[in-house]
Amino acid sequence: MKPTNLNLKPSLLAIVVSTSLLTACGSDDDNDVLVTPEPAPVVMQTFSVTVTNLTANQPMSPVILASHSADAMLWQAGEPASVAIEKMAEGGDTADIAALEVVNSSVNGVGMLMPGMSETLILTLAEADVANISLATMLVNTNDAFTGLNSISIAGMQVDMPSMMHNMAYDAGTEDNSEQKGTIPGPADGGEGFNANRDDVDFVHIHPGVITQYDGLDDSVLMPSHRFDNPVLAVKIVRTQ
């Protein structure tokens, strides 16, 4: 049997080796698929906020419920009210509150919250945006009384575990509590709402209550039924999802 000759020419040997290496280390590029990872799903949380008017004859303006960062507050007792709070407290206008830079989401009530009545507002937020909420509404048979929640944390709330609270009335301190005809926007008068002129103490404080003409304020358009005691608003917060 003739022996196999393994003495190949150098050039031929190089071709054989090169071909073998390419075959052994062949590229898998044709089989590679670039996989883009799926984005993590956005987890949503839904909150049900029920408000109840506890007064005898103080309709409340359409409520605004707003979510915002934990370090934000809509008002501060002892400090001047913002123009946004002034407009809401004097005329029930919440547009400037909704437009605040710190507010990331808001929802309004459908209409006046009448004495003894309740309304539920629904707020759905991405889990990453769940921090604090605030709520505000005007007592419309007054010059500048308002009430609400001021930066309440909802982070970490468990589903179907309600949080309940009662809230007092505040005086925006932006309009004199004269109770005079033409100065109150509610049904007791139908007068002026917001007025940019500030003629009161110019700081937010607990409202002292109304006086009425029956207690000697002769120019007042208010009656004893318009008086109110604290608290004036009940709030129930439930995380439903």
UniProtKB/TrEMBL annotation:
Species for this entry: Shewanella aestuarii
Region (Disordered), start-end ranges: 173-195
Name this polypeptide is given: Spondin domain-containing protein
A Pfam family the protein falls into: Spond_N
Domain Spondin: 60-176
Family matches, as InterPro entries: Spondin_N, Spondin_N_sf
Keywords: Signal
Signal peptide limits: 1-23
